[in-house]
Task: structure prediction
Amino acid sequence: MNNLFIAALLGVASVSAIPVPTPPGIPSASTAKTQLAALTVSAWVDTTTYDRDLFPTWDTIEGTCNTREYVLKRDATTIVVNSACTATSGSWVSPYDGATWTAASDLDIDHMVPLKNAWVSGASKWTTSKREQFANDITRPQLWAVTDNVNQAKGDKSPDSWKPPQSSFYCTYAKSWVQVKSYWGLTVTSAEKSALTTMLNTC
Result:
C-alpha cells in the first residue's frame, strides 16, 4: 500500500516519499561549514525583552498573497487558491517530519531561525523595519510550510535543544539555519554551534 492510501485509512498525515520543498538560498554543506566557522559565538542577550510584535508579519508579497500564503503556494505539491490567495485545496509535504497534508490549516509557516532566537542573537539591536524584513524573508531558507504541531514543539528552540523528527533532514536544516544566521549577522551560542556542526557532518 502506498503512503497516501495508508494515510486515508488512518485519517492522518502520511510519511511521504514525495520530494520536500526547497526554499531558495540553501548553501552547500562546505559553504555552510565556512559560514558557521565565521559566526560570532556569544551568549544570548536581552533575554527578557522579546516581544513578537516587534517583528511585523505577514507582509503582502505579491498580488493579494501575504507571506504565509506565498510560502504555502511555493511549497505546495499541488494547490488551488481563491482570489484572496487563500488555499482552498492542495497537498504539502512537511520536511521536518515527512508528513503529507491536504489542508492548509494543518500547516504553520515556520521561521527557520525563530524570531525570539533572532532577538537574543542580535536582532534586539535592529530597527523594527529590519526585523520586519527578517520575519518575511523569502529570499533565503528562513520560511517553511511545516506540520503545525511539529512547529509548535520547536517553538523558539535552537538546534541544541530541538531537531526535526526526520533525521534525514538534519543536513538541510543545519545548512538553512546557518545561512540565515550568516546573512543576517546573528550570533550563535557554543552549544548551538556544536549541534550545528554535528548536523552538518550528516551531509
Notes: The CA atoms of residues 106 and 148 lie 6 Å apart. Residues 1-17 have pLDDT under 50 and may be disordered. The first strand starts at residue 14 and ends at 15. The chain has one domain: 3-200.
